[in-house]
Amino acid sequence: MIIDILTLFPEMFVSPLTESILKRAQEKELVTIRTINIRDFAPGKHRQADDYPYGGGAGMVMKADVVGAALEKVKTEDSWVIMMSPQGKPLQQKRVFELAKISHLIILCGHYEGIDARIMDEIDEEISIGDYVLTGGELPAMVLVDAVVRVLPGVLDEQSPLEESFSNRLLEYPQYTRPAEYKGKKVPEILLSGHHENIRRWRKKQSLLNTLLKRPDLLLNRDYDLEERQLLEEIIFEGDLD
Ligand code: 4G3
């Protein structure tokens, strides 16, 4: 997969892309991530990439001709062009898995009050990372890149992204590591039992309980297998829900 990020601030991406899992994924050539400076496509000695809005008002608008020239430079037959925007469809894990199958993603980061509206014909999809406004699309682009790259085959050592929270649409069960006791709190005994089937069932129940308490909306419009029905019944009749 190739990801091209079009931005006025390529320096913002340096450390997120050169640390930890995103760094390893690039070293293993599972993904090529490039940043393209939109300002490089601004003509003249001033390299002006933004201008005052027609009709007046606060802030600046990114110029369609400059952004358009940058897009034309990187676009190919296989490109899918995404713009990070508060007006986009809110990103969910399901869309992350779909985007991970595309060979060439181009991510356009708007800044200021946005980009000249005439660029919209050249955009395939607007994506939002949530209902709030940031100073630019760079942080949202990093969120999107991180979410997509982590589900590419070979990026994580385990096959965990397939059976995790939000892909089976339940929150995660609690995790514990050493020490066996912290501030008087012991690790649940079942995790030390070595009984893998009991542990699996306990974790599933904890996931259901966690989801019921923290994100009950995720339990609606979901299919339940027999075990999940039994576990939910146990949870309800044990009654320690508070
Ligand atoms: C307005 C994305 C602002 C128009 C971008 C870009 C939040 C998100 C911006 C535009 C952003 C988000 C830049 N803020 N919720 N700011 O994903 O095209």
Entry keywords:
242 residues; alpha/beta; Alpha/beta knot; two-stranded antiparallel sheet; 9 strands; binds 6-[(3-hydroxybenzyl)amino]pyridine-3-carboxamide
Uncertain ranges: none
The overall average pLDDT, rounded, is: 94
CATH topology of the largest domain: Alpha/beta knot
Largest sheet: 5 strands, parallel
Gist?
This protein is an alpha/beta fold. The protein contains seven helices and nine strands.
3D architecture notes:
It is built from seven helices and nine strands; from the N terminus they run βααβββαβαββαββαα. The chain is elongated, with a radius of gyration of 23 Å. The chain folds into two domains: 2-149, Alpha/beta knot (3-Layer(aba) Sandwich), CATH 3.40.1280.10; 168-237, Trp Operon Repressor, Chain A. Helix 6 (196-214) packs across helix 7. 31% of the residues lie in helices and 17% in strands. The structure holds 6-[(3-hydroxybenzyl)amino]pyridine-3-carboxamide (4G3). 6-[(3-hydroxybenzyl)amino]pyridine-3-carboxamide binds next to strand 5.
Any chance you could write out the topology, listing elements then pairs?
Blueprint: E1 2-7, H1 14-17, H2 20-27, E2 32-37, E3 50-51, E4 61-62, H3 64-74, E5 79-90, H4 93-99, E6 104-109, E7 125-128, H5 138-149, E8 181-182, E9 185-186, H6 196-214, H7 226-238
Parallel strand pairs: 1-2, 1-6, 5-6, 5-7
Antiparallel strand pairs: 3-4, 8-9
Helix pairs in contact: 6-7
Residues 84-86, 110, 114-115, 128-130, 132-134, 136-137, 140 line the site of 6-[(3-hydroxybenzyl)amino]pyridine-3-carboxamide (4G3).
